[in-house]
Amino acid sequence: MTLLEISLLILVIIAIILCVYLIISLKKINETLDFLSKDLKNVNEKLEPILDNLSTILEKALNISNETEKRVLDISHTIQNVRNTISRFTFRDSQSSGQKNPIQDLLSNLTAASKGFSAFWKKLNN
């Protein structure tokens, strides 16, 4: 046997050992990836109901917000209508003499409160 044949034989043996090592390493990597895949499936299964519940909660909160906003607008319109109706019955002579009517004070306070609450609600929703 010549030196070339011995070197070739050593290289073939090293190549076989490297191939076996590569196969074993790939098998370990594959097992790790399978384990990781199972963990991700478990996390996904646990997160899906939570996300569904969160979506339901957000829809209900939006409905409550919209309904409350409608109610506030209805109350504001009702107060405005009452104010307009009562303003028809105010005394003309008390306005001309410069005295304020207690009903006008009440109406202006209620109007200011309703406008303030409407502004608060709009700011809260935005």
What does this structure look like?
The protein is mostly helical and 126 residues long. The protein is built from three helices and no strands. The radius of gyration is 40 Å and the shape is rod-shaped.
Largest sheet: none
Number of helices: 3
Structural class, from secondary structure content? Answer: mainly alpha
Distance between the termini: 89 Å
Into which percentage range does the β-strand content fall? under 5%
Order of helices and strands: HHH
Q: If you average the pLDDT, what whole number results?
A: 87
Stretches with pLDDT under 50, minimum 5 residues: none
Strand segment tally: 0
Radius of gyration: 40 Å
Q: Could you provide a short overview of the structure?
A:
The chain has helices at residues 3-88, 92-96, 102-125. The chain is mainly α.
Task: Kindly list the characteristics that best describe this protein.
single chain, 126 residues
Secondary-structure blueprint of this entry?
Blueprint: H1 3-88, H2 92-96, H3 102-125
Helix pairs in contact: 1-3
